[in-house]
């Protein structure tokens, strides 16, 4: 599968999957009307911090409060992207002001930007050219632990083994 359409299965803590219910999924944004209705219903307190997002396998952006788990937002399903997103008013329109792929439940690769960009374009939201905060995830081939790569330092923080240069979370963890 090409990276732009790669889906990411949930690999986070099993106990969070128990929170998934049909009534608790993120709000899907099929068009600008959906987004306008949703954003208007958000409080000033909610708008002051980023929201949880996923891009479902149909390509729709789903939004939920920040403290929501990505797996709950996605209804327990695989996603094309996941992270955190913030919005700001620019004149008479809403724009994406910050966005990251920070989701330790799905650990999406930076290539997931393409799916998010398409979803945002589909609802007519102005956006940056890429993630404003990029998170690189790697699974250690030696100890099987999830690592967040910082400053391109490809060494496992748990066992000090070398981490692969490319994203490698396309298979589950053996210790979960």
Automatic annotation (TrEMBL):
Species lineage: Bacteria, Bacillati, Actinomycetota, Actinomycetes, Catenulisporales
Stated name of the protein: Uncharacterized protein
